[in-house]
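lol ok so funny story. i was supposed to be doing the assay writeup but got distracted and ended up predicting the structure for this chain instead. priorities right. anyway since i did it might as well share w the group, maybe its usefull for someone
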Amino acid sequence: MNKHWTPLALVYLGLSLAGLAGTWTYNVVAIVQMRDFIVDWVDSGPAVSSLTVDLLIAAVAGSILIIVEARRLGMKRGWLYVALSGVTAFAFTFPLFLAMRERALETARAKVLE
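and the output, tada:
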């Protein structure tokens, strides 16, 4: 295997393939059944299952990114963003982490320039 495939890269690749297989399994069902994706999101159906798999895989990959990147940057309690997503929403905690990550990167840049 190519030396550039780190274990973390392989985890992300695996999640990518799981996301493709999971979402398209339900997308194909919706297409074969000639379902309306927008209506299915409201009334339930294969489109909802596809969206659920889509968001779940994205949340898992994002959670891994949060933990790994927080450690790389020396951010304390990176795991807390993942834990908080269970009681709030990943749509809240992931952008919050990205904002705090930007602050950490800017602090690091400022220290280099001093």
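The longest helix spans residues 46-73. The mean pLDDT is 89.
back to the writeup now i swear
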